[in-house]
Amino acid sequence: MKSLTMQGAKILATGSAVPDSSLSNSQMSEIVQTSDEWIVTRTGIKERRLLTGMNQSVIDLAVLASMKALDKISMNPSEINLIILATSTPNDLFGSASQVQSKIGAINAVAFDLTAACSGFVLGIVTACQFLQNGSYRNVLVIGADTLSKWIDWSDRSTCILFGDAAGAMIIQSCSKENNSILNFQLNTNGNYADYLSISYQEQVNPHPILNLYQGAFKYVSMNGKEVYKFAVSQVPLSILKCIDSLNISINDIDWLLLHQANERILTAVAEKLCINTNKIISNLSKYGNTSAASIPLALDEALQINKISHNDIIVISGFGAGLTWGTVIIRWKAF
Ligand code: ACO
């Protein structure tokens, strides 16, 4: 863990985008054997958005969310120096960030993908801060975007009910230490449990006849729901506690708890473990399901749009998911 103190980083704007097409729990029960009651009780999800139609990809959602963030502060895209696209569902194995850079006209930005599943946006913020706080770049666009609907087995009721598609974006700028809004972070990975949650690569049975080279393709999302649940509820509170302890603030100083929107029961269990009042939980997963790397910026953007968050509020943000990777970022919200 390392405290962010070299130079400040401030959040200028957020934006988000979801597809138009929604799928309710009752519509889901026409696709797999399930019910609204089962899904709501176990997860809190009522509906999710799906990116339907030909030639639609994560890039379209990422571009829309980014343009909304840029428009909010009337920033010319050419002022962006770096784009980090956190996604596990790129449209190209080489990465999709460069296509986002091209489509939004960020002609001066370097762009790369960051793969860390549902923790991707937290890792994206922390990565952006390294470049901002060491003075390399002035404006960074961090995007969390995923279209897991393309990687789901729509006959597997244990996973297909959980996920939705979305994108969220945040523009972060370097600033003086006094205006710093990203106070601290704490990150973890444990690859021993990578198979709890994966979209694994499957080789073909027969190799190339001359080269002995095995090619293959990616499978669908596979998840051990019970283990992922136990991992999240046990590890996320520890990450938050480590992060606030090294900042010398207390649980009572937290105004908002913004966790990766995986399951309402996980959000409540983490809050209760930390003795945080559940009315401090930011949650919108009933409308969107688990949107992976997009879930945190989407929920933050919506909370800001309804003026839920006030100047100087402390927001604890935690991501967790495949890897397994999890971590926390603590923000003091500043309305500029
Ligand atoms: N509808 C109806 N019944 C179902 C469904 C469904 N959609 N899915 C499973 N069931 C059945 C199972 O077959 C099982 O039946 P059985 O008892 O006859 O065998 C029963 O319901 C219980 O299944 P469990 O898997 O034990 O249900 P559980 O209470 O664990 O809930 C859930 C499943 C909701 C997935 C839960 O484990 C969970 O939320 N885990 C965390 C998952 C998560 O957060 N993943 C994402 C994090 S990381 C990332 O975002 C990439």
TrEMBL record:
Q: What are the record keywords, sorted?
A: Acyltransferase, Chloroplast, Fatty acid biosynthesis, Fatty acid metabolism, Lipid biosynthesis, Lipid metabolism, Multifunctional enzyme, Plastid, Transferase
Which InterPro entries does the UniProt entry name for this protein?
ACP_syn_III_C (IPR013747), ACP_syn_III_N (IPR013751), FabH (IPR004655), Thiolase-like (IPR016039)
Name the chemical reaction catalysed here: malonyl-[ACP] + acetyl-CoA + H(+) = 3-oxobutanoyl-[ACP] + CO2 + CoA
One GO molecular function term of this record is: 3-oxoacyl-[acyl-carrier-protein] synthase activity
Q: Where is the Beta-ketoacyl-[acyl-carrier-protein] synthase III C-terminal domain?
A: 246-333
- List of catalytic residues: 118, 260, 290
SUPFAM superfamilies given in the database record: Thiolase-like
Residues annotated as coiled-coil are none
Tell me, which GO biological process terms does this entry list? fatty acid biosynthetic process
Q: List the GO cellular component terms.
A: chloroplast
Pfam families membership: ACP_syn_III, ACP_syn_III_C
Q: Tell me which residues make up the Beta-ketoacyl-[acyl-carrier-protein] synthase III N-terminal domain.
A: 112-191
User: Which superkingdom does the taxonomy of this entry point to?
Assistant: Eukaryota
Instruction: Give the CDD domains listed for this entry.
Output: KAS_III (cd00830)
Q: What EC number(s) is this enzyme filed under?
A: 2.3.1.180
Q: In which pathway does it act?
A: Lipid metabolism; fatty acid biosynthesis
Region ACP-binding, as annotated, extends over 261-265
The subunit field of the Swiss-Prot or TrEMBL record says: Homodimer.
- What is this protein's function per UniProt? Catalyzes the condensation reaction of fatty acid synthesis by the addition to an acyl acceptor of two carbons from malonyl-ACP. KAS III catalyzes the first condensation reaction which initiates fatty acid synthesis and may therefore play a role in governing the total rate of fatty acid production. Possesses both acetoacetyl-ACP synthase and acetyl transacylase activities. Catalyzes the condensation reaction of fatty acid synthesis by the addition to an acyl acceptor of two carbons from malonyl-ACP. Catalyzes the first condensation reaction which initiates fatty acid synthesis and may therefore play a role in governing the total rate of fatty acid production. Possesses both acetoacetyl-ACP synthase and acetyl transacylase activities. Its substrate specificity determines the biosynthesis of branched-chain and/or straight-chain of fatty acids.
Q: What is known of its domains?
A: The last Arg residue of the ACP-binding site is essential for the weak association between ACP/AcpP and FabH.
Tell me the HAMAP family matching this sequence. FabH
Protein family per UniProt: Belongs to the thiolase-like superfamily. FabH family.
Q: What NCBIfam families does its record include?
A: fabH, PRK09352.1
| Protein name (record) | Beta-ketoacyl-[acyl-carrier-protein] synthase III
- Name of the encoding gene: fabH
